[in-house]
Amino acid sequence: MNLFARISYLCSLIRLFMRKLLFVWLLGILLSASSFAQSLPAGSVAFIAIQGDHPIAFAIINTRPIPANTQISFTDNKWTGSRLLTNEGTVVWTSPDTVLPAGTIVKFRDGGAGTGMTIIGPGTVSGRIFFFLGMGDQILAYTGTAEEPSFIAGISTNYWRSPCDTISFFEFRTCLPAPLVNGQTAMCFVNVTTYNIDNGYFGVTPIEGVGPEILPLINNVNYWLLDNGESAGYNSWPDWSTGNTQPFASTIQFAQEQMTLTEGGPVGNVELKISVPQFAPQTVVLSVLHFPGVSSSDYSTSPPVSDQMTISIEIPANATSYILPVQALVDGFPELDENLTLAIGALSGGLVKGAKDAIAITIKNTDNENLSYIEFERDTVMITEGAGGKDVKLRIVPPVPPQYYVILDVQNGPGVSNDYISTPATSNHQILLGPTAPNTSEFSFNVLPVNDFQIEPDEFVRMTISVVTPAGLLTGNRSTMTLVIRDNDAVPQYLPPQVYINELAYFNSDFPDEFGQNDPWIELYNQDTADVNLSGYYISNDLNNPVKFKFPQLSSQLTIGAGQYFVLWADQQTTQGARHLNFKLTQNGGFVGLYAPDGELLIDGTYYSPQREGFSFGRIPDAQGEFNILHLPTPGAENTDSIPLILIPEPLGMSKQNIKVFPNPTQSKKFELQLTDLQHGALFPGVKLFDTAGREFSVSLHPGKNFNSRIVDVSSLHEGFYLIRCGNQPAVPLLIAP
């Protein structure tokens, strides 16, 4: 190869090398630019805090993963509708060189001119936002350049300006740039021209659920704590954490409480309403209750009813309602309307029951053109001893030609045995009637009371249509009748027991019930010489409703011994036992009355005055005394207006003892505190204490928890054994430990 050819070949190699080098350099630039110019959709981050007072601070959470080395700019420059102004500051945050998972929280704070913006969290930051207008300002977050921003989040301490027109450099409001939507991917506080609220933070922690579904909650000002002082500022922000479950419980209930379906008719939609959409699917179990005559062949649901008589449904994420289709099926049998109930049962953690937790469904029959039914004419028939028999009527509507036999089941109430005679006779707790006459509309049987010459309460017999044969005649709605047998013997005058409302208290800090709850209480006192059982009696806090609460038939739990006290809990928690009432006392005063079993005769009652913590309202002496405010509540014990001396001991080895004194020594002229030193024999009267050398010490009195008590500080006493006495009350030993 000649020299020229060699030179030409060498030049071609150099050109090829330079081209490759240029390609690598351009590729590096493109890759670097792409890593810093990631495009993110609106809502990729959300503001969870802002401090408008100096120093400027804000915090964000990302709702989706952010690619490595992504740059997001935060600026308080105003948006005019077409461009960003340039008179304020911009902070540029660069995410770390690995993908940033959703739910990451980053806090930004201006450190001053020498430091610039600082962060707590991953990534790096440059630039400053160092001044906010007092009448309101904002921060907009975007990717891309300031000339061509792609907005992803926004927050304003004032309302968003509308429309977007000319905005001055010193405007304190900005337009909300597209595609941001207030309440979804952006938020504002209030019109701070009036309220001037500069600081706030999202007050729910942990922030549970980290996807875009949380944006409507974070961007809802109702979940923020707002303030114009430092209390809502950077140093008060919570230490947010994130989770994966829904923090906001939703109420679920039926849209309606009744529904009517027709056999073979259109599908009925049972709708469940969800008050707050849930981030994740939720499970609801409906319990199914069949009334007589209904079976699973009478209707269908989707999902179907299980063998356990439940329907399990799944509420999709973000749903505000759920439709359960129900259809009544044609069975070809003439029958009365049938009824079933769906009730909300078990729920997953994000749901709670609403007020409409059940729906009644009526299935109307389509085969009832020739339907006839049999039922009692009345719900109740009353007969009186010595007044003769009475016919109990049944009716057939409409009349039918066939003849039928009817069997009644008979259930005698308490105390009933040979107290009546039926015709036809009762046998094995049943009465056989029939046959009925053709085309008859009614027939009857007779019951005759037996006069037993014994004083007794009214007695009851329950009769139910159980069998009609042959098949074809249905049982109507009035399938049961109650026979009441009234006594005709002289009843002595009722003498109410000597049971009195003795004491009550709305506030209760020291006397828990059997469940450890400090509820309002009412104390009864039996001054009678015999035990009194409250079963069947009434107690009420409403003069217009004496029968508000009826004591159940639980003799073992409701007997008050002679001369004994009996505490009731006015807590509206009747499921906790027979002593728990269905009403509460009120702090502002009211009425309480104990009534006889007739629900009319008032045995004892009182109006009580407004209640104060640490006091009760009771009689002194018990049962017969006037009601007064008592300084010391004594449920289950004799009422007293004071306890003169109570020692509040501390563990041995402590150098200080406190004495709690009733009544308040600063309000009682008769108060006298005496202290006897058992080692030196000295007696120290009055409210001053002395040591063995005769030196006098002042007694420190501090307010006690009760309004009429004081705490006596005896920490200045020398160690030893003492007897301490208030007035003429029994002495109480006191040990002052070294």
Rg value: 42 Å
Strand order of the largest sheet: 6-5-2-1-11-13
Characterize the largest beta sheet: strand count, sense, and whether it forms a barrel: 6 strands, antiparallel
Work out the number of β strands: 55
Distance N terminus to C terminus?
Answer: 115 Å
Structural class: mainly beta
What is the overall shape?
A: flat
Low-pLDDT stretches are 20-37, 643-673, 677-699, 704-709
Average per-residue pLDDT, rounded, comes to 80
Q: What is the count of distinct domains?
A: 6
* Relative helix content: under 10%
Helical stretch tally: 3
Share in β-strands: 35-45%
Task: Describe it.
A hairpin with a 5-residue loop joins strand 50 and strand 51 (696-697). The protein has 6 domains: 1-31; 45-243, no CATH class; 250-364, CalX-beta domain (Immunoglobulin-like), CATH 2.60.40.2030; 373-486, CalX-beta domain (Immunoglobulin-like, Sandwich), CATH 2.60.40; 499-630, Immunoglobulin-like; 645-736, Immunoglobulin-like. It has 738 residues and is mainly β. Helices cover 6% and strands 38% of the residues. The strands form 13 sheets. The chain has a 6-stranded antiparallel β-sheet, with no helix packed on it. The protein has a 6-stranded mixed β-sheet with strand order 7-4-3-8-9-10, with no helix packed on it. A 5-stranded mixed β-sheet has the order 19-21-17-15-23, with no helix packed on it. It is flat, with a radius of gyration of 42 Å. Mean pLDDT is 80; it is low at 20-37, 643-673, 677-699 and 704-709.
